[in-house]
Amino acid sequence: EKANGSVDTKSPVENGQLPDPSNWGVTDVVNYFKATGFEEQATAFQDQEIDGKSLLLMTRNDVLTGLSIKLGPALKIYEYHVKPLQTQHLKSNAS
């Protein structure tokens, strides 16, 4: 039930929370983006050897310009996936 009108961006959620990617390898990152519907763009993370720790360090600019991904998908990847994963990671490690 998405009563607040939020859009379901096909995020593989664990127990109502986003996963913590800090221990992910490159393959885990690639599989995450394939699972969220970015099949074509997932290979860019492979090419650039982005693992979970790298993913958590990425800036908006890194995603938009460093991965050679088209702007539309890159914006969605950053806003709906990279940023929320980073926020979740910071929250879970703050406690």
From TrEMBL:
Sample GO molecular function, one term: histone binding
PROSITE patterns xrefs: SAM_DOMAIN (PS50105)
Signal sequence annotation: none
Gene Ontology cellular component annotations, sorted alphabetically: nucleus
Region (Disordered): 1-22
Database matches in Pfam families: SAM_1
Any Gene Ontology biological process: negative regulation of DNA-templated transcription
Biased composition (Polar residues): 1-14
Family matches, as InterPro entries: PcG_chromatin_remod_factors, SAM, SAM/pointed_sf
Residues covered by the SAM domain: 24-72
Highest taxon above the source species: Eukaryota
Name of the protein this chain belongs to: Sterile alpha motif domain-containing protein 13
Gene expressing this chain: samd13
